[in-house]
């Protein structure tokens, strides 16, 4: 059963090729309360594809499906599929600038067609009871960052959408690659703050360039929620403080070692014949970032997880190497204290 209320103060962004179900299960071991998003799934994949693009682990809640498409009936049909599977939210992608997205007439190019997005929102909300939300940019190409952005939000909000996650950069669909669009257009946080000031009744989350919990708390003074992307993926244990700092949960976070043991058990319960431990381990490369043994962990997983041979004990073997490195580092530091 989908959760009826979602605390949107902190979420982890939908990231193509990254936030699959294995990644989300891993992140859920680090943070209980953060809202997790799937990779973007297109309506075409859901309606016509042969794979199970809606698979997720029950432990992932709260979890939102990010949907790519522009046909209201298809979007409504896929929303019904998502609700039936137990997703807590369906999010419309109006922010991705990749060529695949442009050619499919969805993603950031839809910012120039707010009426299309509004029609999708109406159709989806008529079909499901779970929240329908929109993730967008502050503009595209030569669109005015204030007037064009505000017009887009007004039209989509009038259709019934009350929650917007805004990447505080423009997307340049001409001339910049998807990677460049995540880095080159300047961040304009005040534009998102202004949206919240002028649309106080909407739930507004900010996304783009958020790297620390200090950044998060600063943004939360101006908007309702913060979405973190690449930093949460490359340095995942950063999320271990989110439940306490953002959500006020004083429960003790799991240690890195405890998380590794849980993920080992997760690997052991996989039944897909195509599954490899690397499918899980690749999301865990940054778990020991900044720690003694962090490089050893990353190197061991990369060297021993990517070959043809499947090592069922990949994580435990890597952890043993890390613990040895940490013991050596501690012994070295203790000896210096004695001296």
Automatic annotation (TrEMBL):
Lineage top rank: taxon: Bacteria
Top-level EC class: oxidoreductase
Sites where the protein binds FMN: 14-16, 66, 135, 167, 207-209, 229-230
Assigned keywords, A-Z: Flavoprotein, FMN, NADP, Oxidoreductase, RNA-binding, tRNA processing, tRNA-binding
Domain DUS-like FMN-binding, residue spans: 12-320
InterPro entries: Aldolase_TIM (IPR013785), DUS-like_FMN-bd (IPR035587), DusA (IPR004653), tRNA_hU_synthase_CS (IPR018517)
One Pfam family here: Dus
Enzyme Commission code(s) on record: 1.3.1.91
Cited SUPFAM superfamilies: FMN-linked oxidoreductases
Keyword Oxidoreductase attached: yes
GO molecular function: flavin adenine dinucleotide binding; FMN binding; tRNA binding; tRNA-dihydrouridine20 synthase activity; tRNA-dihydrouridine20a synthase activity
UniProt-annotated catalytic positions: 96 (proton donor)
Gene3D superfamilies assigned: 1.20.120.1460, Aldolase class I (3.20.20.70)
Site annotation Interacts with tRNA: residues: 93, 179, 182, 295, 298
Cofactor dependence: FMN
Record's catalysed reaction(s): 5,6-dihydrouridine(20) in tRNA + NADP(+) = uridine(20) in tRNA + NADPH + H(+); 5,6-dihydrouridine(20a) in tRNA + NADP(+) = uridine(20a) in tRNA + NADPH + H(+); 5,6-dihydrouridine(20a) in tRNA + NAD(+) = uridine(20a) in tRNA + NADH + H(+); 5,6-dihydrouridine(20) in tRNA + NAD(+) = uridine(20) in tRNA + NADH + H(+)
Family according to the record: Belongs to the Dus family. DusA subfamily.
PANTHER family: FMN-LINKED OXIDOREDUCTASES SUPERFAMILY PROTEIN
HAMAP family: DusA_subfam
Function: Catalyzes the synthesis of 5,6-dihydrouridine (D), a modified base found in the D-loop of most tRNAs, via the reduction of the C5-C6 double bond in target uridines. Specifically modifies U20 and U20a in tRNAs.
Name this polypeptide is given: tRNA-dihydrouridine(20/20a) synthase
Species, as recorded: Alteromonas confluentis
